[in-house]
User: Fold this.
Amino acid sequence: MSKLKKSAIGLGLWKIPRTECADVVYNAIKIGYRHLDSACDYGNEIEVGQGIKRAIEDGICRREDLWITSKLWNTYHSKEHVKPALEKTLKDLGLDYLDSYLIHFPIAQPFVPFETRYPPEWIFDTEASEPVMKTAPVPLSETWQAMEALHDEGLALNIGVCNYNSGLLNDLMSYARIKPAELQIESHPYLTQERLIRLAKQYGIEITAFSPLGALSYFELDMADALESILTVPVITAAAEKYGKTAAQVVLRWGVQRGCSLISKSTKEQRLKENLELFDFVLSEQEMKEISALNKNRRFNDPGDFCEKAFNTFYPIYD
Assistant:
């Protein structure tokens, strides 16, 4: 298994509009990003690939300098669909291999052919009078075995999972021939996930945290209230003033000091630069403890909430 060597700060590509995506990726690489976090479900992998191609052609980086992650969508969990799903992603990105390929959710849904709808998203039949999310009886072990085959072929140098809880991770480690290299989870000061992170590290699995700034990613989706912003909490603002940093940089620094890689999304050049400027200061042990103590177990990206609201289907995976 290839050892993870990705940058601690990655560019998350979720919710970046297709019209902007190629330029955002190109500019991010130019600024210094070498870790890009993509997914079939984001619907912009063609444009991501265009940005990568332009950066390589302009001599800003080489392919081997980049760490590019993508994810297997729920509708491709059956063993016969896993490789075609990756091949589609590779074609869209214009790549021969991925540095990391992850199971996006521990949720299997019925197959939707590429020509019918891509990305397939969550609704099974979008034309139905009452559209719902459907699930499919595909064991996660079957999906993982197909992921292992991708690794064997060199199409994915590392394989891993997203949104797994402790029980699923323990189960995966009991049958995996190739152990997961990476676990990607939501984590921020309001959702520290300390037990899960400790378990993953005990297994030798690297942690990548998405939504490291918490509610910020979810305001526009009406999945968080403005009052839930972590950036105005006194312990954060005090540290920002002390170190001459922004509140966001303090929160990201906390994540890095916990030993996690972080996926942070922005389309603004100044914010992209700031997100990389985390390595000229260190939070004290007391500051780390005080920020961790903000934990509320507040999960913003929870299928147990959004599947029922958006897709008329109650489907919790964390309870």
Remarks:
- Strands lie at 9-12, 35-37, 67-72, 100-103, 159-162, 182-186, 206-210, 261-264.
- Residues 88 and 213 are 31 Å apart (CA to CA).
